[in-house]
Hints:
Blueprint: H1 8-29, H2 36-49, E1 53-57, H3 60-76, E2 86-89, H4 95-103, E3 107-110, H5 122-132, E4 136-140, H6 151-161, E5 164-168, E6 176-177, E7 180-181, E8 188-192, E9 206-210, H7 213-222, H8 244-254, H9 257-275, E10 281-282, E11 290-291, E12 297-301, H10 306-315, E13 339-340, H11 345-350, E14 354-357, H12 365-380
Parallel strand pairs: 2-3, 2-4, 3-13, 4-5, 5-8
Antiparallel strand pairs: 1-9, 6-7, 6-11, 8-9, 10-12, 12-14
Helix pairs in contact: 1-8, 2-8, 3-4, 3-7, 5-6, 9-12
Amino acid sequence: xxxxxxxxxxxxxxxxxxxxxxxxxxxxxxxxxxxxxxxxxxxxxxxxxxxxxxxxxxxxxxxxxxxxxxxxxxxxxxxxxxxxxxxxxxxxxxxxxxxxxxxxxxxxxxxxxxxxxxxxxxxxxxxxxxxxxxxxxxxxxxxxxxxxxxxxxxxxxxxxxxxxxxxxxxxxxxxxxxxxxxxxxxxxxxxxxxxxxxxxxxxxxxxxxxxxxxxxxxxxxxxxxxxxxxxxxxxxxxxxxxxxxxxxxxxxxxxxxxxxxxxxxxxxxxxxxxxxxxxxxxxxxxxxxxxxxxxxxxxxxxxxxxxxxxxxxxxxxxxxxxxxxxxxxxxxxxxxxxxxxxxxxxxxxxxxxxxxxxxxxxxxxxxxxxxxxxxxxxxxxxx
Length: 383
């Protein structure tokens, strides 16, 4: 049996009629740049999140960059933050989170994570703000693997210190904190529609969500070269529009988002129940206030057995991934361009333990049984 991390072909077959019809409509109207599907998707997701504005952009990375650039213009009246401006974030995330801060002109301050949730440690944020927070302009929490950060604490700290919050929701479309959709709680939410995401297109795509009229207006200007009139621009902008064809695919797939997230949660429950007795494995944290949408189902494999398990599963035809093998503060890119608050020991240690298992929403029961059976087989010979 061969089991990939994600079977997009299987998903396409499941949604074929909706997707084919959406693409065919584009072929008929031929409005490839900012066609009607872009506005339709923006409206659907705006209503879904309960925010005033959603702006389609060309990638999740651009959603982060444009959101931060818009915040700089609103807060400081400048196109970019100053190099003395600090934005607190996690070191345990994809590169885009940190490099978006650099591209906005600010400096990332990496704060350690909670090893149970994999998310940023809000206690460490509070400690940094209290002792060294005079240059902090914002917090950029990442809802990693689909699990919400503690947004009550983060928003409380932001309000107390009069700083912004930009949520990185790239891995958490449809996720929630206390029944509030992620991306609607902070000042800005940044989404990715990369094909592997819970809501993914047939290429790159992203979205900025906000209740702030000014932020939304600035993002719309920046994504079209920096001006309302592209022949007479105001700011250093980007060619960062969401393609019509991608919007069409996303509109077609959007109605399956909640259904597929529920399927992911059911698969996660199956894994949790069947792996909980294995002493070398720690299953993902269940947080009562968070609606986890399991973009990844990520276990911790203790006692130096992660790589051995991964190799064994590969031999058995079971794909796995390590998200992430290197923390941001260990990357060359961030040398001399970032700050780390105290030691980041939890983040560093986690990189040698995390292993993500397949969590395709349309997985068959026999595939899940095979995966847990082989994991148990591996550890039965190791104890």
